[in-house]
Amino acid sequence: MNLRALAESVAGTSYRCYGLQAHGLNDGEDIEEDTIVVMARRDIEQVRRIQPHGPYNLIGYSFGARIAFEVAHQLETQGETVDRVILLAPGSPSIQHEPATSGADGRYRETWFKRLLFSVFFGRTDGPLADSVAATLTGRDSFLKTVASDLEIDTSLADRITRLVEKTCEFEYTFTELADRNLAAAITIIRAAGDDYSFLDTAATDVSYASGTLDANHYWILRTPHVEHTASAVSAALTKPTITELPKDNSRTSHVTLGWV
After folding, report:
1. How do residues 222-257 score in pLDDT, each as one tens digit?
2. What are the Cα distances from residue 201, in Å, to 1, 70, 211, 261?
3. CA 80 to CA 91: how far, in whole Å?
4. Are 13 and 76 members of one domain?
5. How many domains does the chain have?
6. Rounded CA separation 131/222 (Å)
């Protein structure tokens, strides 16, 4: 639902936007054996219920950017045409390194993970409550108690969201997998201010793409008033963006800016 405002801004006479919900959010949906490949394959089944064949335009936000990229790869492998792939905020919010939490379970030892998980519910990685979560929480149960005390949300849904974040944080392409994924589709990366590098900003890929950075952070790019700016950038990438080189400024990849009218 956090993508609804963006979809409504992008959709119009030229496009219809369809949202794909992450598998695992509904009660009874098992994600134990899921991988990026499996998630993408499942999404393709849903896409083809609406449009059996291409050309397709795909937009993915945050972790969904990795899924959109994989969906494009699988569709092209099957002989379908993907016109454009737009990866919106594909890098995680930048989180400073902090000491591990002793006595915590699994990923809950890692403070960056707890801040990232916190941000999924609260839309930020900093602040007094985030600091407390990062420093003291030792597992899923203690995190869910914090959520329940500060948000009006169904406890079973909060549990499913938490499990989904735990699972997807495990997903990474291997060097070989990423090197094999050279898409024919035009790729645009629209970065959020302050985000870390994306999965495409590695030596494992020579995928060509246009990119630009928005003024708002990972979460605010989907909210009023910033969402209109985000929608303009997405709409430009869906048509024919004007590309202007920008200073590299400590980046490992060349950046370009998206122009629109």
Report:
1. 999 999 999 999 999 998 654 433 333 333 333 333
2. 28, 16, 11, 28
3. 27
4. yes
5. 2
6. 24
